Amino acid sequence: MGERSRIPPDKERISSQEVYKKETKQYKLLTPEEEKELGRRIKGGDEEAKNLLINSNLRLVGATARRLANKLKLSEDLLSDLIQEGNLGLIKATEKFDPERGFRFASYAINWIKAYIMAYINKKVNPIKPGKIGGKIQTIKFHSTDAPMYSSEDSPTYGENLTNSDISPEEATQQQERKKHLNDAINDIKNERERTIIKDRLLGDATLEDLSKKYGVSREAIRLAELRIKKKLADILKAKGLKKEDFE
Questions:
Q1: SS3 of residue 132 by DSSP
Q2: pTM to 2 decimal places
Q3: 137: part of which helix (H) or strand (E)?
Q4: Host domain of residue 57
Q5: In sequence order, what are the residues at sequence separation of 6 or more whose Cβ sits closer than 8 angstroms to the Cβ of residue 100?
């Protein structure tokens, strides 16, 4: 008899990835309200709610795994393994998600997904030098940006900067949460110029010199304005039940 026909490895890989992608599309994207309701049910031990939240966010795992594989220049052969590890991170996220914190589930889950994927890469891809991939890119630190991130077909737009230090998924979420609360409080400042100054100083990287040139005033004037605005901001945070010390 002739030799048994076999699927070439590259086509087999593409086929399995296409099947995964097709399966993830069977579940619709959730609204914030649906996520919160599922989160509350999960807290009560509802396994059906847990499975639905997981399945509705599988596309986030695939997008994150592909983005990290491309950024780190990893072999396509590893993608299925990265997705599998990301799935484990997604499961962990559903177990620890607190729906009352005011964040979309994806903005919390992305940190767990990345943590599991990067742990796998550091252990399996380059165990001799766990801090580096190919001697070039080091372990991941999770950051947030001003862009919101939801469970969607596209890869998320924040939390993608890679630096040399590590941060836990919980710490990353806390940073995102603090930044969101601070941004919301700043937006409650009525004066547009004051909002811009304090945003540039607290959420951006503008120096006193930068702002003095921007507004045509002295650095001292900007410094005094910043102190005045911070007092307003402290009052706004207090009214929201937040402590200004948590944002310093």
A1: strand
A2: 0.56
A3: strand 137-138
A4: 9-169
A5: 36
